[in-house]
Amino acid sequence: MRKSIRGRFLLVSVMSVILALIMASFVLLNLFTLNVERRIDEELTGHINNIAGTLRFAADGDIELPDRPIERRFNEPYGGLYWQVEDDLRNKQLRSASLWDTSLPLPDDDQEAGSIHRYHLAGPEGSELIAQERKIVFAAPDGKRAIRVAAAIDASVVSKARRTFMFDIIPYMVALAVFLIAASLAQLSYGLRPILSVSEGLERIRARKADRLSGSFPKELQTVVDAVNRLLEAQAQLISRARTRAADLAHGLKSPLTVLFNDAATLRERGEVDIADELVHLADVMKSHVDSELTRSRIAGSAALRSTDADLASSLNMIVRTLRRTPSGEKLSWSIDVADGIAIEMDPNDLQELLGNILDNAVKWSRSAIRIKAHLQDLRAVLIIEDDGPGASPEGLSKIMERGIRLDLKTPGTGIGLAIVGDIVDVYDLSIDIQNIDSGGLRIIIRF
What angle (nearest 5°) sits at the alpha carbon of residue 12, between those of residues 6 and 14? Predict the structure, then answer.
């Protein structure tokens, strides 16, 4: 995943979604808590106002509450909701039945009359309370008197509501995470589609089905596409120029060689046969080298630079038809077992050059027969060419494809043909196996 753009984007997306939802859950949980606390404060303030509105003074000046709140929790011992009224001047205290045998430990601090004072208190049975207190100045029979009215609620109400809300939103957050990750994957697939188009275009170029990238690309990729097309055009021009120069050089050398052949013929007419034969031999060697270099200049620089794919049966039939017309080839028995429609990912010219050199060597050494077979093995084409010649020594087999190596100096040749085969094998990364046949002869197996 580390080396994949898709994997990197997916990893960042998953981490971002999870982090964002955790932060969102934290914010929502805090907002919910603030809202619950706000509602609790409003409830406590309402209770204080209701209690303050029903406070009365008896004839003796003591405070009394004839209409006590009817809220059920005020009457349930330790029910979680409490009220308390204190008259500090007469040390008189009224409290809800829910406080039972306890009282609210209101702090002894100065506060402005009429304002709400909010704080946390220790409640019954070790509980924690959220409390509000309001100091109200009443007109008592004996003058103005400050009365403290307080209401409190168990703080666990907030934590329980918070915990319930948290468990309620978890399934929705998980569903939202799945949706966002799926949306990120869809966005990623859509966003990477142009890159996939570039990859497919390059594959078409490699398969020689196109010579440049074409189509509509986003502006972010268009500069890359243009650069690749310019590179392909420059490469094609360089290859064409190199092949042209090699061909010009080879053709330029052919003229002097023709003169050498003519001079050798003139010397032979004059009776200088030895010198003429030597010149003819040297000219033949030079001509073979020129022809081989001209052939090499036509070989594709790599498998990706082939002009198109080749048909194995067509290429073999063309070469065998030519070799059968030669003096050596017409004396041989040819056995060909090659199915039609076997496509080879090689330039047709390169395949013909490969087969031509191998079969030319087989014709040169064969005594009576040449056998050619081809089949598909694990979707790969396998070609087998056998002759019934003398074969080669173990040392010769290891060197047979080296440049200039001739296993029999008495047989005409330059030792370059199979070297060209080696060059083509290297260009197309083919597998070639050369072995002696027990009954006599040489077998060459090529796996494309």
Answer: 100
Residues facing 258 on adjacent strands: none
Angle between helices 417-428 and 348-365 in degrees, nearest 10: 140
Indicate the fold that domain 56-156 takes in CATH.
Beta-Lactamase (3.30.450)
Each residue of 264-320: pLDDT tens digit? 788 778 878 787 778 777 777 777 666 666 666 666 555 555 657 788 888 898 888
Can you spell out the DSSP letters for 369-388? Answer: EEEEEEEEETTEEEEEEEE-
Is there a shared CATH topology between the 56-156 domain and the 306-447 domain? no
For residue 219, with 0-12 CB atoms within 10 Å meaning exposed, 13-18 middle and 19 or more buried, which class applies? exposed
Distance CA 396, CA 381 (A): 27
Single-letter residue type at 51? I
Residue 94: strand, helix, or coil: strand
Using DSSP, state whether 255 is helix, strand or coil: helix
Which of 325, 342, 343, 344 lies closest to 334 in space, CA to CA?
325
Query: Tell me, what's the pLDDT at 301?
Result: 54
Give the residue from 365, 375, 347, 362 showing the smallest Cα distance to 408.
Answer: 365
What is the tens place of the pLDDT at every residue in 220-273?
778 888 888 888 888 778 777 777 777 677 667 767 777 777 777 887 788 787
pTM higher than 0.85: no
CB atoms within 10 A of CB 56: 11
Report the C-alpha gap between 80 and 122 in whole angstroms: 12
SS3 label, residue 344: strand
Which CATH class, in words, describes the domain spanning 306-447?
A: alpha beta
Residue ranges per structural domain of the chain: 56-156, 234-298, 306-447
User: In this structure, is the dihedral angle defined by the CA atoms of residues 357, 358, 359 and 361, taken in order, positive or negative?
Assistant: positive
CB distance 299 to 350 below 8 Å: yes
